[in-house]
Amino acid sequence: MQFLWLDIYNGRYSEFMESIKNPIKKILVFTPNPEMLVRANSDVEFLDILKKADYNTPDANWLYVGSMIQEEIGFLRACFILLFAKKKLRVQYGDLIKGSDLTRDLFAYAEESGQRVLMIDNYRITTPTNPFEVEKMRIQSDLPNLFKMRFPSLDVTLVFDWEKTPEQIAELIIANNISYLFSCIGMKIQEKRLIEIFAHLPKAQRVVWLWVGASIDFLLWLQRRAPRVFQSLGLEWFYRLIMEPRRRWRRIYTAVIEFPMIVKNIDR
Fold this sequence. Notes:
Blueprint: E1 2-3, E2 6-7, H1 13-21, E3 27-30, H2 34-42, H3 44-50, E4 55-56, H4 62-70, H5 75-84, H6 86-93, H7 99-113, E5 116-121, H8 131-150, E6 155-160, H9 166-176, E7 178-184, H10 189-198, E8 208-211, H11 215-219, H12 228-232, H13 236-243, H14 245-267
Parallel strand pairs: 3-4, 3-8, 5-6, 5-7, 7-8
Antiparallel strand pairs: 1-2
Helix pairs in contact: 2-3, 2-14, 4-5, 4-14, 9-10, 13-14
């Protein structure tokens, strides 16, 4: 797959997992979704950042729709194929590699194989100003225990954004022999931060870097992921819209409406 002149990995999920389980060098992985690609369409700096990844993996079913539109398949027909012929899409365009699945499987593998993990979370809230921040502060204070409950044998180091400089984080990775670095601090910010840290590491450093969005929340059961029936039908976005319409509608509109329109216009 390719969007905005950005190559998207189109292989098998199992093959991709094998390629990053035991890296021989530092590997940078971004997981673009339609919302990110819409942003990159109008933000040249962000597009250039995404191009620096070793892998850009397809994170959402709607990328299949975008690929079909680029092949001049109509929007409604593409939606029909997405719902009823997904196996064909996987053969043609490759498996989806969703951040939530990737995070879950890599955490499980790291625990099983005794590898160390570093997670960069959003800024630490010390003075909450609304109910959301009150809950976020509570979760942040309990994150080490939550990880311990979910992965009792996993060695996880937690860093909050800007509590350490990129150079200090690089030193932490080297000193602790970190195998996997997960970041969930917000679109574009996290990709820039990973590249900044990347620059301070030797080329032969064996570490995989990933942007994973809300995947950690799903992994620790802090948010509920869409039921499997919605996932299998490619309707996770619809489930989120039903559950949180006020919070989600703008992002869903961007992914479901704006993204296909942009792809169609670029294709022309």
